[in-house]
Design goal:
By secondary structure, the chain is α/β, with parallel strands linked by helices. It contains 9 helices and 8 strands. The strands form 2 sheets. A 5-stranded mixed sheet has the order 4-5-6-7-8. Strands 1-2-3 form a 3-stranded parallel sheet, with helices on one face. The longest helix has 27 residues. Bound molecules: zinc ion (ZN) (2 copies). The site of one zinc ion (ZN) has 4 residues, from loops.
């Protein structure tokens, strides 16, 4: 694909498959992205790159440009941040080892979440979540959420996150993820670009957010998601200004997980503002 203006390219560089907490296979996401008019695509499963080869070959068969992707969970101060890695070598040994280390804590956390939910009268939550995830190392809060909805305990996944599984509510278990330095080093070391995912979702004060962004840049982070399914229109403007102030490139991604739960479909977001440099500007 050759385009003189990268802003005109329908890029969707953030979504999830059954390899993490999405409900479609990498090949089915490729098809949906293509059918929705996506022209440049990345699959970014949580802490996992096992879907990359299926995604790349499905995209190739469709004539859809593909770049590698991952979304790494990071513990920073009291918050969990998400760092998206794009356009890296998926065979990089240090990246794979780092992701493996990060994933191994999930199984233990999931069992503890099940114990906590049992104490408030919800039986079988771990087993239920596991039935969705298929593998204890991949069990996430989203899988627990689907179980609570299936059992009629909550009306939808958003209801679950308001009443369970978050700090101060039943089912929340503190988790030590990768450090910001580790996540950026794994991505950069594999030749990729580190992108700060959906900054509007973090519960940080304005001062904390500035400190976090400065640290992200000092460690080698180079882009920020401005147009994402997690942001409102006013947040598009806020993070456009942030990208300009800090000299960061900008990314765009739906964060699509499943047909019923995701409010934004693949490829459906507005384009990046003209003032910003798309992270994919030299990948076309
Ligand atoms: Zn995320
Ligand atoms: Zn995501």
């Amino acid at each position: 694909m050759h385009r003189s203006d990268p802003h005109a390219v329908n890029a969707d560089l953030h979504c999830h498959s059954t390899v993490s907490d999405g409900t479609l296979s990498p090949a089915d996401i490729a098809k949906r992205a293509f059918d929705n008019g996506v022209e440049l695509w990345a699959l970014t499963d949580h802490d996992e790159i096992g879907g990359q080869s299926e995604a790349a070959s499905a995209a190739k068969n469709l004539g859809l440009a593909y770049i590698t992707g991952v979304e790494i969970s990071v513990s920073w101060a009291t918050e969990t941040l998400h760092i998206v890695g794009l356009n890296f070598d998926p065979a990089d040994a240090a990246l794979e080892a780092g992701l493996h280390k990060t994933r191994s804590g999930r199984a233990r956390r999931a069992e503890q979440m099940g114990e906590h939910l049992k104490k408030v009268g919800i039986e079988g939550a771990f087993e239920g979540a596991l039935s969705y995830a298929g593998n204890p190392n991949l069990v996430s809060r989203t899988h627990f959420a689907r179980f609570l909805v299936e059992k009629g305990i909550c009306s939808d996944v958003h209801d679950v996150f308001s009443n369970y599984l978050v700090a101060g509510k039943p089912g929340y278990v503190e988790m030590q993820w990768a450090t910001l330095a580790e996540a950026i080093e794994w991505i950069s070391g594999a030749g990729g670009v580190a992108v700060l995912a959906h900054p509007g979702r973090y519960r940080l004060s304005a001062l904390e957010a500035d400190v976090m962004v400065e640290e992200f840049i000092k460690l080698g982070g180079r882009a920020v998601e401005v147009i994402t399914g997690s942001h409102s229109a006013s947040q598009y403007r806020k993070y456009t200004t942030l990208a300009q102030e800090f000299g960061l490139m900008a990314s765009r991604g739906s964060d699509f997980h499943s047909l019923g739960e995701s409010h934004t479909d693949l490829g459906a977001l507005p384009p990046l503002p003209d003032a910003l440099t798309p992270v994919w500007h030299n990948w076309l």
